[in-house]
Amino acid sequence: MPRHLTTRRPQRGAGVLGVIAMLLLIALVVVLYLNRHLLLAHQSASNQWRAAVAVESAEAGLSWMQDRLNHPGHLDAQCEPATLVAAGTDFRANHLPTSTVPGASAGCRLPGGSLDCACPNNNQTWADDSAARFVVRLAPETGTGTVRAQALGCAPDTAPCDQAAPNQLDTDARAWLSVALRPVPLLPSLPAAALTCAGECRLLEQASLRNDQIVGLGLAAHTATTLTRAPSTQVLGLPGAPPALASVENDPTLATAAGAPCNDEALFAHLFQQSLAAYARSPLTRHLSCPTDNDCSATIRQAHALGWRAFYLPAGALLSSGEAIGSPDAPVALVTPGRLTIDNAPNVYGVLFAHDTFVNASDGGAADIRGATVSCHQHRQGGQSEVAHDADTLNRLRESTRTYERVPGSWRDTP
């Protein structure tokens, strides 16, 4: 049989294998590069998120401090409005700075969008640092009359978060912001006379008006009409000054400003350089609905003990308990478009403004009002009562009823 000879074919493809290996190597390099870029992008996004959280936390701290500063009532240890006198403290007294020393710091954690705060926090850093947080304080600004709110915001998992070393900030996790706050008085202007009356004004029995202070030029009575006086009443001005200088009656300027008949809004704006509506809606003003036939003294005193100083009584009020309303160091503003009746013998410190004011008009009591009284439509005062102008009391009232607003252009992002 014939034999068939076969030959082996030589192996091929080694070159292709090399090319494939080279392509795989290039692909691996590309994947590693893209993975590195992804990791860097992820880290950059994480850093940006943490930086944004820190900035927003600091901004929240500034707004929170301004809000707490403009809350007139006492606050508890968690910076919430106190419901019991013993549980709260005066936030402004603790946190407003002196001329050279910053006020106490306060701070909040923000777990899940809620607030967990401490007032004052004494640079508290919180053992649990898994939530964003801020620490804020008020510092003096020399010669400007303003204060500077300084807030340090921290992202989660950043410890510590305090203001001990503001110049050593980890910019990835912390942000420092500040803004100037200026005080704005709720009552920019105050009456110069013990009694300002734009309507019917009567002094009965042994009632008296007094202003022996040079600040008000000794003006005891300022009226748009004639002040009707019983023979035993007294209108007293500066010692040694002629009695005629103690009162200004039938003042056409006051009559024009108040309108005929007297308009509460117009008279209030004329005397206090503030609208009655703005006073009523201010966050510093406490609204109390007092029945005109029941004594409202206890309700006002309770709110006063919790730090409130400005009151709006839409339906008027009766004060007849004989106990003090306000104090020389913490006077009040009682404002109503209705009737304000004072019976018995209470001491009242501050400003009274009402459409009608009746002070011991029928009970023969001896109320003592220190500050100023304003009546739009009718003022009747009898018994042995006295309305006396007190500039110191009025100035304390103006200082205690100030709001704080941001000064435009004062925002900073560096210590």
Task: Describe this structure as you would to a colleague.
With 415 residues, the chain is α/β, with parallel strands linked by helices. 25% of the residues lie in helices and 27% in strands. Strand 13, helix 6 and strand 14 form a beta-alpha-beta unit. Keywords: Membrane, Transmembrane, Transmembrane helix. This is Type 4 fimbrial biogenesis protein PilX N-terminal domain-containing protein.
Helical content stands at 10-25%
- How many beta strands in the DSSP annotation? 20
Runs in which pLDDT lies below 50 for 5 or more consecutive residues are none
- Oligomeric status of the shown chains? single chain
Shape: rod-shaped
Instruction: Quote the beta fraction.
Output: 25-35%
The helix-strand sequence is HHEEEEEEEEEEEEHHHEHEEEEEEHE
Distance between the termini: 106 Å
- Average pLDDT works out at 87
How large is the radius of gyration? Answer: 35 Å
Structural class: alpha/beta
Count of DSSP helices? 7
Largest sheet: 14 strands, parallel
Keywords: Membrane, Transmembrane, Transmembrane helix
Organism: Hydrogenophaga atypica
Transmembrane segments: 12-34
Protein name: Type 4 fimbrial biogenesis protein PilX N-terminal domain-containing protein
Provide a compact summary of the structure.
By secondary structure, this protein is of the alpha/beta class.
